Structure formats: structure tokens, C-alpha cells
Amino acid sequence: LPINTLQASSSSGEMSYPNYHGDCRKLNFPDMNLFYDACDKARVDCQHVYIYRDPYAILKSTTVNRDHNGNNKLAAIHLYTSLQNVIAAQLTEYS
């Protein structure tokens, strides 16, 4: 059962790091603990796929192409570096 699907509305999102926009953007990301706990309770096998993207491509995409970070490359570097650490910790726990 895939859960990373198209956004149905502005109140739902894909499992993305970060997810959504706004003041607390750096705190909006999927929690794999919840995902794996739900699978445990449902007694189903749970798996994930990690799709790697080149860091320079992410910076270009989010600061130049789409201006998600107000063209502030340093803020984007801090945001994506922090989230990379979150991803690494979560994947280490469930790999």
C-alpha cells in the first residue's frame, strides 16, 4: 500500500522532508516512528524507499527555480542539512 500519494488538499501532503511551508517548515516532516508503529499494530510488514537527490540540485530547485526559501541559500543549506540528519536517524532505526 503506497502512502506517498498526490496531495488531495492543502491539509494533506506527501511524505517529504520538509513538508508544507510556513514559519515552522523545518519542523514539518514525516515521523517514521508513527508509520512503523501503525504497521506493527496492524500486524503488517512495513517497508520504506529512500530516494536520494543531489544536494546541489535541491538548493537550485528550492532557491532559484521555485524560491521556497526566499532565495536565501544559507537558510536552505541549514534547513536541508538538519532534515538530512533527521532522515539518517530515522532510516538507521528502521533499516
Describe how the helices and strands are arranged:
Layout: H1 32-42, H2 55-65, H3 73-94
Helix pairs in contact: 2-3
Spell the H/E element sequence.
Answer: HHH
Shape: elongated
Assembly state:
single chain
Which segments are poorly predicted (pLDDT under 50) over 5 or more consecutive residues?
none
Mean pLDDT: 76
The DSSP helix count reads 3
Largest pleated sheet: none
- The first-to-last residue Cα distance is 19 Å
Which band does the percent of strand residues land in?
under 5%
Question: Which structural class should the secondary elements be placed in?
Answer: mainly alpha
As a percent range, the share of helical residues equals: 40-55%
Based on CA atoms alone, the radius of gyration comes out at 15 Å
Count the strands? 0
Outline the structure in words:
- This protein is mostly helical.
- It has helices at 32-42, 55-65, 73-94.
- The protein is elongated, with a radius of gyration of 15 Å.
Keywords for this structure?
mainly alpha; single chain; 95 residues; 46% helix
Question: Could you give a quick summary of the protein structure above?
Answer:
The chain has helices at 32-42, 55-65, 73-94. With 95 residues, the protein is mostly helical.
